[in-house]
Amino acid sequence: MKFFTSFRKKSPWILHYNAGSCNGCDIEILAALGPKFDLERFGVINTGNPKQSDIFLVTGPVTYRSRERLVELYSQIPEPKVVIAVGSCTTTGGVFRGMYNVEDGIDQYIPVDVYVPGCASTPQLIIDAIVKALEILENKSKEIEKPFKLFGSVETIGNKLSRLNMAKRVKHD
Amino acid sequence: MIWIWIAFAPILGGLVYGGERVLRARMQRRQGPPFLQPFYDMFKLLDKRTLIVHAPHALLAVAHFFALWFSVAAIFLGWNLLYIVFLHLFAQIVLILAGYSVRSAYSHLGANRELLMLVAYEPILILVAVGFYLVSGSFDIAQIVRGGGYLAQMPLLFIALLMIVPIKVKKSPFDVGEAHQEIVGGVEIEYSGMFYEFLYMARFLEYIFIYSFVFIFAGVSYALGAALVAGVFLLVNLVDNATARVHTMHMVKIIYAVAMSLAIANILWIVL
Amino acid sequence: MLLTLILLPIAAAFLILFSSKYIQYFLSVAVLASGSYYSILLFTSAENVSFYLSSFFNTVIIAADIVLLLYFLYQGKKYNSLKVIVLAAVQLLLFLYIEHVSAGHSAQVVVDGITKFTIEYDTSSGHSAEIAVDELSRFMFLIINIVGGIIVLYSVRYMEDETATPRKKQLFIAAMFLFLSVMNTLVCANSLMLFFFLFEMTTLASYLLIAFRNDEVSRTNALRALWMNQIGGVVILLGVLVAVLGFGTVMFDTLLQHSGGVLFLSVALLSMAALVKGASIPFDGWLLGAMVAPTPVSAMLHSATMVKIAPYLILKLAPALGATLLGGVLSITGGLVFVTASYLALSRFVFKEILGYSTVALLGLMMALAAIGTKESMMLAMVLMGFHALSKALLFLAAGVLEKQYHLKSIEEMSALVHRAPKTVGYILLGFVSLTLPPFGLFMGKLFAITSVASLLRERPLLLIVLVSMIIGSALLVLLYFKVSSALLSNPSDTLSAEEERIPYGFSLPLILLSVLIVGTGAGFIVIQHDALLALLALPLIFVFVLPWIMRGMERYDRTEPYHCGEKEPFDTALIYYEPTIRVKQMIYWSFTLLFAAVAVVGALS
Ligand code: SF4
Q1: Beta-sheet pairing, A82-86 with A55-59
Q2: Which of B233, C9, C183, C378 is 20 to 30 A (C-alpha) from C146?
Q3: What separation in angstroms does the CA of C530 have from each of A51, B241, C447, C520?
């Protein structure tokens, strides 16, 4: 409904996930949430729970260990949702680019709506990114959004998604 | 008139919750969210796609909300205080069953803690009710609010009640049930969208529920009641900002050792 | 009617020995139907019947008693248990001494020598009848015949899956029937000697039935049950002795008409027997050990009927207890047992033991209420007795289903049971909920109990202990039951399809009967309260009825997996136990032993 859609941007709840970052950007996010920058004045709550979140705030270049969880968490966030990649390493791999155990940015796996540069990025930038993300969020539809890639094979993605849909349920591994 | 109050109880609770968020922010020298933030959240939750784990789990949240609403309505209608405490128990058990009904570690931990919280505050609430009965001669709230002088007669019971207010509204040092940093909201964790909204509103009702108990202490004087509620509200938030969370078992021990003995001492004092 | 209640189960017990499976079912249904019919009839007829037993019967009973005690002596020798031997010998001596003493009074006591029962309505002549049916016994008939009958019906099916010879199975069911008739007689016994005999009969029944499986564990537990219950027998005999020496009577009602003198000592001794039979701490050991018996035994003897002798006895003695110090001590003991047993149950993991401990706890509560001795609290004790029998029977029978169909005993093994056995878990949950929550009867009983004790506080401040322990105990029981249900309930997401569960009819019929009874009597209890507000307490229950409807609507929401921090593999939480340290436990036992002794001391002093 149109009426409710206008409230999306008034109460963005955040899920923050660290996909192998150096913790630099995580601290900046916490700073943004803290009293000085006070993200809560936009109605932001750091829920720590995908099922109640709207904004997926990811830091880190996606290590091999974390990619499965990244996709799992992403798929557990109910639509509409936006993804913000915080920090250089999250957008492109940054200082970790080309390393043997990282995947050079989260957009290999899930669709990213806002990229935040900076190593580490600043609280101001993060706030800007959230404000930007809210615009995008308002225009999103409630269609199911699929992650792009999971270990490169389309079937596994299919399996992953199928459990979101009760009708075609597949018993996965 | 009373029915309008009952119908708007969740909204009233929402306003209290919104006010509390602002107050807490101001205490931390922040600007804080808008006053109406809880309602924005509610409307947004309606707009989200709803994912559920299984149907009974989701429905139990709805049941919890309505049972809680029912017990709040019972307060407004001036019913028997004991019945109200047990209706509230019913609502709480529904929530706990919901928490147990999914195979999720956090949900289970949360439900375990809810149970322990129940064990901690339930006896105090009943003892408060018994105190009211001994002083006013009736368990009915309608009867109780016609009397007065409860604060003078049962000051220790009031302190005992004060100690369990943080448990009910999930504030430090007794916010073990929710404990976002530890168990990610406990029983709330598996809910989303519409069904989470019911739990979110249930929290508003908890505010109304427990602050009504504070309000009743004023008896016939509504002004004193309002002052009491406001005072307790401020105090609870102050304590919330100033303390750290205690361990669940310590919470139970503190309540049993301190609040319980205060309550018993007070009742003995009334009786003898 | 009374005779039917007593004789019919005996007849059925004989017939069972020669009948095949189907006739067994038929017989048990017949006994259940006629038993409940007659007990309801008796209950509604509301007239107090009393019988005199002929001296022939009295002699038979004395002989049977001596044989019984000699059998205990023999068993004690056979299994080399000193306690059993000593206690049996003490009882034998006491018994003979009492017979010897009371023979002196026999001119008053023994009457007509006809070998038939003579029915007389209560006359206020010098002595009273050996068998007297009053309101309390009529109520007990209801519990015994309805709940007991259902359990016997269940045990027929239960025995099919047991590994034992057919003969032994038949004997088992026959014993259950016999037990019904023993209980029926016990609750209308007015003669203390008859009461003692039947008390010993129930001890015998629990001894034999606990030892039914005849392995090491059952043997030791059966012997423990035997000697602990014999303590009860000894104190009864002592009480009788005091009564005979002091007042020259062996009748309940004549005894209670007296006042002063050694009355309190006698009453105190008798109520100590109640504490033993009710497995109050420190005697809880025997009831827990009894849980190794086949489940129908646990249901019948150790929760629904036999242990109800404890509150029954206190209720019977309540007119003498009243507002006395002895009554106070007894009710405090009961209240403390309620809290402590609920607390001790929190550390148990065998399902039946948990049920056993909560039985101990609730029996404590009933005794506390009975010992308060006001009209209202006695009524509430009876109400609690009835509802407790129903709920506990349901829980035990469901536990039996789990044991036979799924081979589960410990709650540790029961995780996600709701996925495999949704119906059984439903029954268990109903049992738990009916023990703790509105609008069910047991909860209502507790609620009124709090009200009634609170109203007595001004006159008897000592009751504050009972009140507080009632409140805390109820909270602990909530913790206990729902902690246990946490193990049963955790259900994976709807994404896995659940299996169909089939409970055999022999099991499901008793379960359904009990559930219907629980809901029906609970509703009936609310209705007779004439309190409109109270009925509203049941409103949340409406939700249950619209549930299937809503369920269909739930199809349209998408399903997801629970949150596991993004992991694929689910992880479970362990169950939580709250265990007291050994020192605390010892302290608990010591203080309760002291309290037990205090009952006698208070009785002797007042
Ligand atoms: S962008 Fe730089 S500071 Fe931020 S997480 Fe990556 S490496 Fe660390």
Answers
A1: parallel
A2: C378
A3: 47, 49, 16, 16
What percent of chain A has a predicted confidence (pLDDT) above 90? Answer: 0
pLDDT-based confidence at residue C103 (cuts at 50, 70, 90): low
Residue type, position C376, single letter: E
How close is the nearest chain A Cα to the Cα of C566, in Å? 4
Q: What is the dihedral of CA B98, B100, B106, B112, to 10 degrees?
A: 110
Confidence of residue C543 (pLDDT cuts 50, 70, 90): low
Chain C residues lying within 8 Å of A143, measured CB to CB: none
Long-range CB contacts (within 8 A, 24+) of A135-142: A135/A9, A136/A82, A137/A8, A137/A9, A137/A12, A137/A54, A137/A55, A137/A80, A137/A81, A137/A82, A138/A5, A138/A6, A138/A8, A138/A9, A140/A79, A140/A80, A140/A81, A140/A82, A141/A79, A141/A80, A142/A79, A142/A80, A142/B49
Output the CA torsion sign for C354, C359, C364, C365.
positive
Question: What's the gap in Å between the CA of C286 and the closest CA on chain A?
Answer: 49
Residue nearest atom 2 of ligand 1, based on CA coordinates:
A119
CA C392 to each of CA A34, C301, C481: distance values in angstroms, whole numbers, following the listed order: 54, 11, 12
Q: What is the pLDDT of residues A90-142, one digit of tens each?
A: 888 888 888 888 877 788 788 888 888 888 888 888 888 888 888 888 877 77
| Domain ranges (residues) in chain B | 2-271
**Helix, strand, coil % (nearest 5) of chain B?**
75, 0, 20
Place C530 in a pLDDT band, splitting at 50, 70 and 90: low
Quick check: C478 and B89 CB within 8 A?
Answer: yes
Question: Distance between terminal CA atoms of chain B?
Answer: 41
In tens, the pLDDT along C274-294 reads 888 877 878 887 888 888 888
How many other C-beta atoms can be found within 10 angstroms of the C-beta atom of residue A127?
Answer: 17
Q: Do B48 and A78 touch (CB under 8 A)?
A: yes
Q: Are C418 and C425 in contact (CB under 8 A)?
A: yes
How far is residue B98's CA from residue B58's CA, in Å, rounded to a whole number? 8
Q: Distance between CA atoms of C451 and C369, rounded to whole angstroms?
A: 12
- The string over B166-194, giving b where at least 16 C-beta atoms fall within 10 Å of a residue's C-beta and e elsewhere, is bbbbbbbbbbbbbbbebbbbbbbbbbbbb
Which of C495, C496, C563 lies closest to A76 in CB terms? C563
Structural domain tally of chain A?
A: 1
Q: Tokens 């039917």 sit at which residue?
A: C4
Residues near ligand 1 with C-beta < 6 Å?
A: A 21-22, 24-25, 59-60, 87-89, 94-95, 119-120
CATH of the domain at A62: 3.40.50.12280
% of chain C surpassing 70 pLDDT? 88
pLDDT one-digit tens code per residue, C409-463: 887 777 777 777 777 888 888 888 888 877 777 888 888 888 888 888 888 888 8
Q: Is residue A171 part of a domain?
A: no
Question: What ipTM is given for this predicted complex?
Answer: 0.89
Chain-centroid distance, C-alpha B112: 17
- How far apart CA B18 and CA B39 sit, in angstroms, is 8
Ligand 1 center from residue B14 Cα (angstroms): 39
- What would the pLDDT profile of C368-410 be if each residue is shown by its tens digit? 888 887 888 888 888 888 888 888 888 888 888 888 877 878 8
Q: Could you tell me the residue range of the domain that residue A131 belongs to?
A: 2-141
- DSSP-derived pairing of the beta strands A114-116 and A82-86: parallel
Out of C461, C490, C550, whose CB is closest to B100? C490
pLDDT of residue C212: 81
Q: CA–CA separation, C424 vs C419, rounded Å?
A: 11
Whether A130 contacts A45, CB under 8 Å: no
User: C309-348 pLDDT, tens per residue?
Assistant: 888 888 888 877 777 788 888 888 888 888 888 888 888 8
Location of structure tokens 């303590």: C231
Q: Are C71 and C189 in contact (CB under 8 A)?
A: no
